[in-house]
Design a protein that fits this description.
Strand content: 15-25%
Distance between the termini: 22 Å
CATH class of the largest domain: Alpha Beta
Helix content: 40-55%
Oligomer: single chain
Number of domains: 2
CATH architecture of the largest domain: 3-Layer(aba) Sandwich
Shape: elongated
CATH topology of the largest domain: Chemotaxis protein chec
Length: about 290
């Protein structure tokens, strides 16, 4: 989830606007990682050197690697390493933002270094382990001055993984917003009871729900109907069921779930510890509402 939280990091730093980020996310499937971005990420080349080689490519009919080696910006073994290496997905988002003119290569270089340091990504090739994603979520909550509990981290870690798994990885979560009142669009709610008591909801506009359900059910819906509504309920119930199983397996905590149901109240009255997380997808914004 490095890419998803990198987007949130850029927004918090005011490096990009929500519109620029949404546009970049929508373009990710059409973007291929460039060798210069990889070289900069690995620390083999600076942003200025990458910019120079890219400029020279407009004057010479040569590949990026050829020019970089000629200029002594890369060695042969480094080029071979770049061509073979696996790279974190947030690089692709950063490059897309450079390609669209939202940020420069030098800004991307600085932002990547700071992002890796803040989230304790010690190596450019670090995998997205549970420890790494938990650290991302802790920083995500802290950036919004939210209290961090192990239960909220476990819950959000799972919900973001389930969004990747069942809906798609092309999203960015915005910072949590604490509120005691929330105006609903189409909202599904489920209560979790036991040693902890939690109320979780997922809310979105009807057209966004059509896009969400189409991805979840892996079939094309064209209108907001009962099948779409059932898909939202099924996703929330599936996620909370997995959360309940995880809590039982990992810390021997037994939880029970109420059936998910549509929230009929146009305005939710929330407790002081409730928060809302907007999640931007190309098809619209969904809202995760959690009292935990």
């Amino acid at each position: 989830m490095f890419a998803q939280f990198f987007g949130n990091y850029l927004l918090n730093r005011k490096a990009v606007t929500p519109e620029q980020l949404s546009s970049a996310i929508a373009s990710l499937t059409d973007t291929h990682i460039r060798l210069g971005t990889l070289a900069m990420h690995k620390g083999y080349m600076t942003a200025a050197e990458v910019d120079e080689v890219c400029f020279l490519q407009t004057r010479e009919d040569k590949r990026f690697g050829e020019i970089a080696i000629e200029r002594n910006y890369l060695f042969e073994d480094q080029l071979e390493d770049l061509l073979k290496s696996q790279n974190p997905d947030y690089l692709l988002l950063g490059q897309t933002l450079v390609d669209t003119g939202a940020i420069s290569n030098s800004e991307l270089e600085e932002l990547m270094i700071e992002y890796q340091a803040e989230n304790e990504i010690e190596s450019p090739t670090d995998s997205e382990s549970v420890e790494h994603t938990s650290k991302l979520i802790e920083n995500f909550l802290l950036s919004a001055e939210r209290p961090v509990s192990k239960y909220s981290v476990m819950y959000l870690n799972l919900v973001f993984n389930n969004l990747v798994r069942f809906i798609g990885e092309d999203f960015t979560p915005l910072s949590p917003v604490q509120t005691t009142g929330y105006e609903t669009n189409y909202c599904v709610t489920q209560r979790i009871s036991g040693q902890i008591n939690c109320v979780s909801s997922i809310d979105m506009e009807p057209q966004t729900a059509v896009g969400f359900a189409s991805r979840y059910a892996k079939m094309e819906f064209t209108e907001f109907d009962e099948y779409v509504k059932a898909s939202l309920e099924d996703f929330l119930n599936l996620h909370n069921g997995l959360f309940s199983v995880n809590m039982s397996n990992e810390i021997s905590m037994e939880l029970t779930l109420d059936p998910p149901a549509q929230e009929l109240d146009p305005v939710l009255t929330l407790s002081d510890n409730a928060f809302v997380i907007p999640v931007i997808y190309p098809f619209g914004t969904i809202y995760l509402i959690l009292t935990l």
